[in-house]
């Protein structure tokens, strides 16, 4: 058998952080929409299209900055489409989300063929990746250096965003109104605030974050586009958001948990464990996490019903 | 003097009713002006027009003589009009403070200034005697507290005119007294109050002027000095009414319902049933009084098989029925008028006739070998529609299109015609017009005369007192005591509804219990 110390090394911690980033970025966007009472499962599709657009833009411009910006624009556009479907034409968000996800899968496959003439995946040395960041002040000790230094820019950015959103949601007028939008829209309206505007804002922000998550998958985590490369990470983001109780900091911890299961999986696989079993782990964890958070939510509901 | 508010010729049509038919209404600065009328008279609609959330089809709004067009509540708020709705506009998972400041948040360098908000709220709360706990969540507040939060919210938004839509409907008599002190203090501070109610006693107590509405029209505005309860009732209903119709109590017969120490889980902590025991005899009405949400719903669910009982025993004429299914319990000759006619009393998509026969459908003569016999069905339905004066008198109409009172009569007709030994009536007249109230109450009394056992659950103390032979008061899932109707009065029942035992309530110790 394998010794535990072989599995649990410092590099596993690094893998955990790296793998948690796309989940975390998606989950942050999902928190914002969920607070406005929209469970935006369309984030999976937003990520996939953004990942493709990021690669294409980076390939043609030779600049990862352009790649990220293009991905964000793509994310916002799709989110705006969802807003149109849900807020204007009043379609169910879930149905809109499923439609977006199916559309994205086919759309990226089509563009891959049409723009690059390939099927399955696209790689080129001309794609400019998002750089890693070397923070020299962390080199004081090899353990600290291994644990905290030389991550991708997006890994750091995601963590900064956790605190940015924590601040926005709990300390600003914008955040207070957003939190009310989900739980009592009528109170928001009588307070003279438009619920539709709040929901639109939330959806567009989730588009930005989904765009960042997609760009990270194809320009940071790897440097290529693969068909269906999101591979359920948007859905795992939904799980992380619920597991984290729809709050940024705890959702960060939840994302790390999912990143960890992926990391352990990858490690076990290199040791010759059956790969199908390993690849299943994050999804099994998702099922448990969702079940757990739903039970908790049910309990809350039954314990505390106002008047 | 120019009126502070003048509404003139207001017309508002909803898809299937004209809710306001050329209504005029005027408000003097600094007065307490009551708006009375039966359910559906158009009171809430009229006030929503003044508050900017409903746009009238026609008519003008003048504030201090100037014509205004309100596009949203915000516009009305900017002119100092605030409203506390019948259904509170408060988010249960958020704090009192957050609910109050929503939309008008103070900030310091674009960050929410919670400290300043806290100060402002405590200041207002002291000024008007509105005790609240700013940092508690709404869901941990009582109904009375939540109502104070709503009033504070309106004041925080700068209201000079406060519209209170049926504020006393959800309060105990003591909480009502406290609300009246708050209204007095608002008046003292120069605020103008519009008080909506259909309890005439209250209205006489606190108003300067009273406007009566019926059927979308104003019937008249009276100075309180010129008003009497009788005059108001006639204006409200259009004829004389007799609501206190109880005949002398007949001799109660054998025990029909015997509840022995039952406990059951509740929707929330306060409504968990703990060791509830009582009996209902043939030929008597036992009233269950209490503020909504103190376990009444759970009790009815336990008795009818809709909810599980964890402990204790329920017997019908000596046979245990604990935790049987609703169908099995009905077979033990138990009928049930559910508390919510729209979700559990009726199938709104089906006709009056179909709803009337829903329970006896599987028995002859209505069906044979599983096949419905339409002639018998139609005959029975037509007979019940006539007997119970259900309007429109056509049993082929979908119940969704009926008024509240007629929906309720369909349910009453179905349940009473079952001829059961025990009738459980949960809020049988809630939200229905006075005519139907009168009718339904007379049916309940007639059932009692016929020797049925009746359990009457109601949050309306007046109803409980005018129908019951004995009154059990529920508080936090327990029975605080059972009082013979002859010894019951509003004060004693009110104290018990707030947690006093019968002895405490009668020996005047109750007030201390409530303070504690
Ligand atoms: N939003 C609405 N849509 C359709 N009908 C309504 C609406 N609001 C009220 N009504 C109808 O208008 C009438 C007046 O209702 P309302 O103003 O609530 O009466 P009140 O407050 O006096 O009980 C009723 O017949 C009611 O069914
Ligand atoms: Mg009303």
Short description:
Chain A is an all-alpha fold and 307 residues long. Chain A has 13 helices and two strands, in the order αααααβαααααβααα.
Protein architecture, described:
The complex is a heterodimer of chains A (307) and B (516). Helix content of chain A is 75%, strand content 1%. Chain A is mostly helical and 307 residues long. Chain A has a domain at 10-131 and 139-230. A two-stranded antiparallel sheet of chain A has the order 1-2. Mean pLDDT of chain A is 89; it is low at 303-307. By secondary structure, chain B is of the alpha/beta class. Chain B contains 19 helices and 24 strands. In chain B, β23 and β24 (478-484) form a beta hairpin. The A-B interface holds A 171-173, 176-177, 179-180, 183-184, 186-193, 302-307 and B 53, 72-74, 77, 88-94, 98-99, 101-105, 107, 110-112, 138-141, 143, 146, 170, 267-269, 292-293. The complex binds adenosine-5'-diphosphate and magnesium ion (MG). Adenosine-5'-diphosphate binds next to β2 and α1 of chain B.
Corresponding CATH superfamily of the largest domain in chain B: P-loop containing nucleotide triphosphate hydrolases
Going across the major beta sheet of chain B, what is the strand order? 6-9-10-3-11-12
Number of domain units of chain B: 3
Derived from helix and strand composition plus strand pairing, the structural class of chain A reads: mainly alpha
**Top CATH class of the largest domain in chain B:** Alpha Beta
Mean of pLDDT of chain B: 90
Identify the quaternary structure here. heterodimer
What would you say the CATH architecture of the largest domain in chain B is?
3-Layer(aba) Sandwich
Alpha-carbon Rg of chain B, integer: 25 Å
Share in helix of chain B: 25-40%
Strand content of chain A: under 5%
Largest sheet of chain A: 2 strands, antiparallel
Counted beta strands of chain A: 2
Helicity range of the residues of chain A? over 70%
